[in-house]
Design goal:
The chain is an alpha/beta fold and 258 residues long. It is built from nine helices and eight strands. It binds nickel (II) ion.
């Protein structure tokens, strides 16, 4: 059974120092769990370059590059040119993670939004999908997406919110990617979204090393655990894991153009 299920972890940060001691073992465990594709996400210029390099080293790994809202302060003047150049490297699937973060508020909202919009425009120019990071910024995220992301393919990374928010994201044409919190017993709003969202708009991710699913909550996360997220969504929807895994595999191929 294990062998026939193919899973894709749509969002990892395997370049993080938490994986320095055992990155090879982590990738081996992922493969053993059926996680045969992994999308490594940059969040600033350095980690975007590292994501491209990691993808070059491992057949199963792809890269997404961009500047995340917690890293938009102190960018060099040519940052967008650097993002553009990185976007054209081999195995780069999308621009991300990009968006708004009013939890950390690392830069003024106007600065965050300007960087977000610049990268949405770049994605449109390059015909690439986008990976969206949004934290405590639901209304402004939806406003910007409605205004500037129509016609783009996109993924709401580590979606957290209720059905109303989910529907707004789906209306823009985006996919919802579920992470560890979907496995938490008290995440009833998320469970509701996972049941109601169309099967062809779902993705799964670990956001490793963060957001480990139950029963590893609070520990280091890793791509092999994406299977626990798939199992939880399949159970919530009352469908076999094989069916869910196949749907998600196809969704990822469609969004990322694989
Ligand atoms: Ni991330």
């Amino acid at each position: 059974m294990n062998n026939v299920i193919r899973l894709i972890d749509s969002h990892t940060h395997l370049g993080a120092p938490q994986f320095d001691p055992d990155r090879t073992d982590v990738l081996e465990r992922a493969r053993a769990a059926g996680v045969v594709r992994i999308v490594e996400i940059g969040y600033d210029l350095a980690t975007s370059r590292a994501a491209v390099a990691l993808a070059a080293q491992h057949e199963s790994i792809y890269a997404v590059i961009g500047v995340q809202p917690n890293h938009v302060a102190d960018l060099p003047d040519d940052w967008l040119d650097q993002v553009r150049a990185l976007a054209q490297q081999p195995k780069v699937l999308a621009i991300g993670e990009i968006g708004l973060d009013y939890y950390w508020n690392a830069a003024p909202a106007a600065v965050q939004e300007a960087c977000f919009r610049a990268q949405l425009d770049l994605a449109r120019t390059l015909r690439l999908p986008v990976v969206i990071h949004s934290r405590d910024a639901r209304d402004d995220t939806i406003r910007v997406l409605r205004d500037a992301a129509r016609g783009l393919s996109g993924i709401m990374h580590s979606f957290s919110g209720d059905w109303e928010y989910a529907r707004a994201c789906l209306d823009v044409g985006f996919h919802l990617s579920f992470s560890g919190p979907i496995t938490f017993p008290k995440a009833v709003n998320l469970h509701d979204v996972a049941r109601r969202a169309p099967l062809d708009r779902l993705l799964i991710e670990t956001d490793s090393p963060y957001l480990a699913p139950h029963p590893f909550r609070g520990k280091r996360n890793e791509p092999s655990y994406v299977r626990l997220i798939a199992e939880r969504i399949a159970a919530l929807r009352g469908i076999p894991l094989d069916d869910l895994a196949l749907a998600i595999w196809r969704n990822a191929e469609e969004v990322f153009g694989l």
